[in-house]
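Internal tracking record. Fields below are filled automatically when a chain is submitted to the structure queue. Please do not edit lines marked as system-generated. If the sequence contains nonstandard residues, flag them in the REMARKS field before resubmitting.
Queue: standard
Priority: normal
Entity type: single polypeptide chain
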Amino acid sequence: EKTRSLHVEEIKQKYQSLGKKPYVIYNGGTSSVGSLGYVDGALELFNQIENTEISDVFVPGGNGGLATGMIFGAGALDIPFHINVISVEHEKDKLYEIISNLIVEIEDLTNIKLKYSLDEIMTIYGDYRGEGWSCDTVESVNTIYNLARAEGIFLEKVYTSKAFFGMKDLLEKKIIKCNGACYLHSGGFSSLFNQF
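SYSTEM-GENERATED OUTPUT FOLLOWS
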């Protein structure tokens, strides 16, 4: 994270030295306001799965914004599904702290206090992050190729492939037993063009 922030700061200063006024969205856009889009995503998913058996939703956990929005949304909806966060960057405790702080910010922003603990709404898995952000693993690279060949679904190295592999591994090993699972594919499409 520190390296990424330094790089962003260098680019910002470069443009400022050219007389430009760059607008920087720090930390991957992670903020309480940014997380609200995924609160709405939880509501949209809830409405789409009304007549299906989806008990678990899997999301990547990088800077925590996407995961926090889905967690807050699921909590506000009385937990229609459990959120499984696959960390792709931070150790479990650090990501838990980030999410906890963002939840408090969203509660303050919306004036809605969740009546459930985070542990009732979500579980964080930290075994799939490898060396962290932007560092692929053998499993994540294999997942990219295998899913593209089998289903025509494209993942990228930094974020989505680690989370998808984590979901697949947890389900295959029956660490998570569920009635139905949903993976939130969060994009990363710009990475597809320069990752191999």
